[in-house]
Amino acid sequence: GKSLEPLKRTPDETKLPYYLNSFSKGLPHNEWGVVDEKAYEILLTALKEGNSTAFENVPMGVKNGFGLRNPLAAYASVHEGDAPDTFTIPSAPEFDSAWQASEAVEVMWKALLRDVPFADYASNSLVKDATKDLQQLSEFRGPTSNNSHIKGKISSQTLFRGVGPGETVGPYISQFLLKPIPYGATTIPQRYKVPKLGNDHLTNYNEWLRIQNGGKPSGITTALYEAESLYLYSGRALGEYVLHDFVNMAYLNAALIIGSFGDEAFAKSDPYSKTKSQARAPLFGVNHAIDLLSRVSMPSQQVAWYQKWLVHRRARPEVYFGRVHNHLADNGIAYPIHEEMLNSKALDKALKENGTYLLPQASPKGAPLHPTYPAAHAVMAGAAVTMLKAFFNGDFVIPDPVMTSADGKRLLPYKGESLTIEGELNKLASNISLGRNFAGVHYRSDGDYGLVLGEEYAISALREIAHQYREEFGGFTFRRFNGTTVEISQ
After folding, report:
1. What is the pLDDT along the chain (490 residues), one digit of tens a residue?
2. Bond preceding residue 282 cis, omega within 30 of 0
3. Residue 113 in contact with residue 130, Cβ under 8 Å?
4. How many Å apart are CA 395 and CA 460, to the nearest integer?
5. Alpha-carbon gap, residue 344 to 130, rounded angstroms
6. Own/partner long-range contacts of 63-67 (Cβ < 8 Å, ≥24 apart)
7. Where are the chain's structural domains?
8. Architecture of domain 77-488 in CATH?
9. Across-strand partners of 266?
10. Cα-flanking dihedrals φ and ψ of residue 429, to 5°?
């Protein structure tokens, strides 16, 4: 383990009363969902001490409930790449800010639009309502028509997408989450279990409060699934995927799919791209890429956990909307919630559908018991996709691209603008990181800054790895999520 440093504190944790935007799920809360301050301060003490005994002394909200998710992982070291505590990301949006409001409005619209097929976004009236509502936000930071974020036009083609190069081109879902996977001596179609339409959770206030205290779902709602597996055709389908994926699943599959494209899909700097009497593998082949993306996938979680537990401790979106609900209820409670949140049409829609202002969750358990910022899925996506970019040719045009039918039962040919490996890897990373927002468990900044953090960790690992090979090559060259070029010399 690492030697302990003074615990970092965020503006919300030090200035906002009652730890209103600090992660406290699993601890005791009052009837308004506000954490017991003494219990939270015992958690802070445990984080300062960094040992199992200290965490066992943290008071929990209910007996036999869910435990805090592995806070000791925040102190673990990694074998490759820079140490977790050497990375930094900006502070998360503050509770009372327009930026926070923009993120919350977006995540509520994602919940309200879970069942709209991506294929129908261009014609759906509720999608139009969402784009119009988001357009009014002064600090919205998603992609727009001219990619200037705040001043550009938000359209059905940019809605809920990532900000990386190529992400607003083509279908919402990456080709690497749609195309069949060459898996050894077989091929696996990418059809998955999908919950039934409208299968939302935690819109009942008493159940929401039970879950904040770490309680297990009461059964007031349960997960119900469609009879047949489907392609990732909607926000609900994508949200379910990212609630159940394993450590390197999407990136392993992407590597196998890219490997089926042939030699031209490998990076131009690859040492075997021009040799005649030598061929790649075991090194610089698909198996090498799979090994390296796997070697950064698990350590990326330690990088994420350091930021989550020892720096930011940001509360999950379900907590913010608990604050919104109590603020708008006629019960004398008032919180410093930005007017752009309170003026959003999404709140009226949520109240009409659910009877509360709570954020509908894709899982009966709601979010997991660790802080929201940065998203661990995003940090892993950033790290693993960066490894894939280092090994493969980002400019390679993907053959025979596909899109989902509106019912999710079929893949259809996609006939639009060309899709490249780089663009679809960027899209894959955002599908995973922002797909968690469709599930209701993260904000946009959790994903966007998580991707950058994972990218930085993978780059630090590549700088070490590049010196390990006898092959003479130009090193690794690829583009970051922001479009700038990285060159890692041998």
Report:
1. 455 677 899 999 999 999 999 999 999 999 999 999 999 999 999 999 999 999 999 999 999 999 999 999 999 999 999 999 999 999 999 999 999 999 999 999 999 999 999 999 999 999 999 999 999 999 999 999 876 555 689 999 999 999 999 999 999 999 999 999 999 999 999 999 999 999 999 999 999 999 999 999 999 999 999 999 999 999 999 999 999 999 999 999 999 999 999 999 999 989 998 899 999 999 999 999 999 999 999 999 999 999 999 999 999 999 999 999 999 998 899 999 999 999 999 999 999 999 999 999 999 999 999 999 999 999 999 999 999 999 999 999 999 999 999 999 999 999 999 999 999 999 999 999 999 999 999 999 999 999 999 999 999 999 999 999 999 888 999 999 999 999 999 8
2. yes
3. yes
4. 24
5. 10
6. 64/216, 65/26, 65/213, 65/214, 65/215, 65/216, 66/26, 66/214, 66/215, 66/216, 66/365, 66/369, 67/26, 67/214, 67/369
7. 77-488
8. Orthogonal Bundle (1.10)
9. 392
10. -60, -45
The Cα–Cα gap between 132 and 326 comes to 26
Residue with tokens 């301050």: 37
Q: Letter for the amino acid at 164?
A: G
